[in-house]
Amino acid sequence: MKFHKEGYTSLALVVLFVFIINAIADYYDAPSYIQWFLYVISAFLVVVILQFFRSPLKKITINDNVVLCPADGKVVVIEETVETEYFQDRRIQVSIFMSPINVHVNRNPISGIVSFFKYHPGKFLVAWHPKSSTENERTTIVVKDKQNREVLFRQIAGAMARRIVWYVKEDSSVNQGDEFGFIKFGSRVDLFLPLGTTVNVNIGDKVVGGKTVIATF
């Protein structure tokens, strides 16, 4: 287990805040019960940040015939729908909701070349809202594999998420299971798969990024 690089600023701010409030309490000789309350709150805040930005080390088994899960969380949508931004045709949508207690590292579901990338500023509706995938702050990434199969995956900010981070750009080569981004404090990832792809998960399943096989070509 390691601490993710995206968490350093948040950790520094929390440590600074904890130091200031405890220093003020000590300076004004606050009653012992208030000081103990502040100690508990301080420890809680630090633990929350350490927990949220944890980044487990994973051994990824690359398989060109499967779509790996891009994030830890819970499957909330499996349906055939029209993808209107890039494909302009019908696709299988699989959506994964990440709660604040999940690991928020995002991983490439397949290996290949990034054929499309776009960042969209937007709203911060709750991640399970039907319009969150088209109105919230989000990124859209499409990767084409060696067999010219394309998978679109979309990072979507939630009500708590206020920053989406990505590490890819168009025409770059990516490996299945490697990190492609991070979303801070609650979010969702959508996958759009070719029709005919066999989905291996069900709504309500808990899935693990880089480990769970979402679908098979």
Descriptors:
21% helix, 8-stranded antiparallel beta sheet, single chain, elongated, Glucose Permease (Domain IIA)
The parts where pLDDT drops under 50 for at least 5 residues are none
Compute the average pLDDT. 90
Please list the strands of the largest sheet in the order they lie side by side.
11-7-8-9-13-5-4-15
Number of helices, counting only DSSP H or I runs of 4 residues or more:
3
The level 1 CATH classification of the largest domain is Mainly Beta
CATH-defined architecture of the largest domain = Distorted Sandwich
Number of structural domains: 2
Q: Please count the beta strands (DSSP E, at least 2 residues each).
A: 16
Please estimate the helix content: 10-25%
Major sheet: 8 strands, antiparallel
Question: Could you characterize what this model shows?
Answer:
The protein folds into two domains: 2-55; 66-216, Glucose Permease (Domain IIA) (Distorted Sandwich). Helix content is 21%, strand content 37%. It has three helices and 16 strands. The protein has helices at residues 8-27, 32-52, 132-135, and strands at residues 2-3, 54-55, 66-68, 73-83, 89-98, 105-107, 112-120, 138-144, 150-157, 164-166, 173-174, 179-183, 187-193, 198-199, 206-207, 213-216. The strands form four sheets. It has an eight-stranded antiparallel beta sheet with strand order 11-7-8-9-13-5-4-15. A three-stranded antiparallel beta sheet has the order 3-16-14, with no helix packed on it.
